Each structure stands twice: as C-alpha cells, then as structure tokens.
Structure to design on (89 residues):
C-alpha cells in the first residue's frame, strides 16, 4: 500500500491524524487523514487519506466529525512555524 506524505514544516509533525466521522445513517468510520479541504460552495468535504485515497463527503451526510490529538499537534506546529517565519522576515 502506498502511503501519502505531505511536506512537513517541522520534523516533529505527525504524518497523519485520525478523523472519526459519524454519519446521519448511524454508521461511523475512522480515517487516517493527511488533508481535509472544505468546499463550501458545493457543500463537500474532500478528504485525502494516509493510504492515498481521495474521499468526497457531502456535508448533509455528516452528523459529527471528531479529530484525534495529532490534529491538535499539527495545528500547534503550523502556528509555531508560521510565527517563526514571521519573526525571521
């Protein structure tokens, strides 16, 4: 299985985070995610998974999305690196 690696802004950044999606049908699935794009004009989540799949999910099918702690780490690292970048300029 090919894995998708996006460029890291820092060596301590996790390779992916997990999203647990709870659908309006009652089904629940957990995906290893490297990127989520939100297309509000067409009400679609486009999810790129660690195992190199692209999944599009309509907003209307999703009841709830839960992100794991790696998502918080990635956001924290992105903020830190952006701040470092700004102070260097």
């Amino acid at each position: 299985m090919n894995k998708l690696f996006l460029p890291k802004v820092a060596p301590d950044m996790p390779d992916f985070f997990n999203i647990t999606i709870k659908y309006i049908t009652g089904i629940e699935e957990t995906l290893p995610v490297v990127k989520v794009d939100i297309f509000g004009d067409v009400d679609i989540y486009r999810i790129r998974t660690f195992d190199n799949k692209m999944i599009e999910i309509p907003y209307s099918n999703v009841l709830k999305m839960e992100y794991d702690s790696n998502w918080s780490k990635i956001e924290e690292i992105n903020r830190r690196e952006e701040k470092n970048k700004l102070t260097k300029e």
